């Protein structure tokens, strides 16, 4: 499978496993899972043929590990980033003292006034790596990295979850727990 085809399938999976499962007539269970056979059949019926081998390739080679198979290999889901309601089966855990969030400078004033909100998703996505936050911010414009005082949030009873692909999730980040990273934070 070439890179262009893998990207096309990955974008399709993001659409139907994170945002619009009804676009191909599938239903996700409460934790976001759907049967692999059901997904492949529904995709084919709606004009997107995917073989089990192609699906396996996309899941195993996706650089952000966005998707996962169940342990028995019979179900698939997106690991995070849903705009449809799912109840992740991740257990709350104590985060590192500081987490990072990359965004664009054009929205910085709003974020510093209102905090980080999940917007159309179920959770705010944070990273334990400064470099990852920069890459995320670059996707949205001129990047800026925000430092999240995750230790203080945890002490204030905010629940953090860590996905298997190393994304930290929290429902929101109030502005009092944020500050803009500067050169001393590198």
What topology does this entry show?
Elements: H1 3-19, E1 34-35, H2 36-45, H3 52-61, E2 67-69, E3 75-78, E4 98-104, H4 108-114, E5 116-117, E6 124-126, H5 130-138, E7 143-149, H6 150-155, E8 161-162, E9 168-170, E10 172-173, E11 178-180
Antiparallel strand pairs: 1-3, 2-3, 4-7, 5-10, 6-9, 7-11, 8-9
Structure description:
This protein folds into two domains: 3-78, Arc Repressor Mutant, subunit A (Orthogonal Bundle); 98-185, Alpha-Beta Barrel (ADP-ribosylation fold). Helix 1 (3-19) packs across helix 3. 32% of the residues lie in helices and 20% in strands. It has six helices and eleven strands. With 186 residues, the chain is α+β, with helices and mostly antiparallel strands. Strand 2 and strand 3 form a beta hairpin.
Keywords:
186 residues, alpha+beta, Arc Repressor Mutant, subunit A, ADP-ribosylation fold, 2 domains, 3-stranded antiparallel beta sheet, 11 strands, 32% helix
């Amino acid at each position: 499978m070439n890179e262009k085809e893998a990207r096309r399938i990955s974008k399709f999976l993001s659409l139907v496993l994170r945002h619009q499962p009804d676009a191909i007539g599938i239903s996700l269970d409460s934790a976001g899972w759907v049967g692999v056979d059901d997904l492949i059949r529904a995709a084919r019926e709606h004009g997107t043929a995917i073989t089990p081998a192609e699906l396996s390739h996309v899941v195993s080679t996706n650089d952000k590990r966005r998707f996962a198979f169940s342990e028995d290999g019979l179900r698939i889901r997106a690991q995070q980033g849903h705009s449809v309601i799912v109840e992740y089966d991740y257990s709350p855990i104590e985060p590192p003292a500081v987490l990072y969030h990359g965004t664009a400078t054009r929205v910085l004033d709003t974020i510093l006034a209102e905090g980080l909100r999940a917007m159309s998703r179920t959770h705010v996505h944070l990273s334990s790596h400064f470099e990852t936050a920069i890459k995320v911010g670059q996707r949205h414009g001129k990047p800026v990295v925000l430092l999240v005082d995750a230790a203080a949030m945890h002490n204030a009873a905010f629940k953090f979850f860590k996905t298997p692909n190393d994304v930290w999730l929290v429902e929101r980040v109030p502005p009092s727990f944020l500050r803009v990273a500067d050169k001393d934070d590198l």
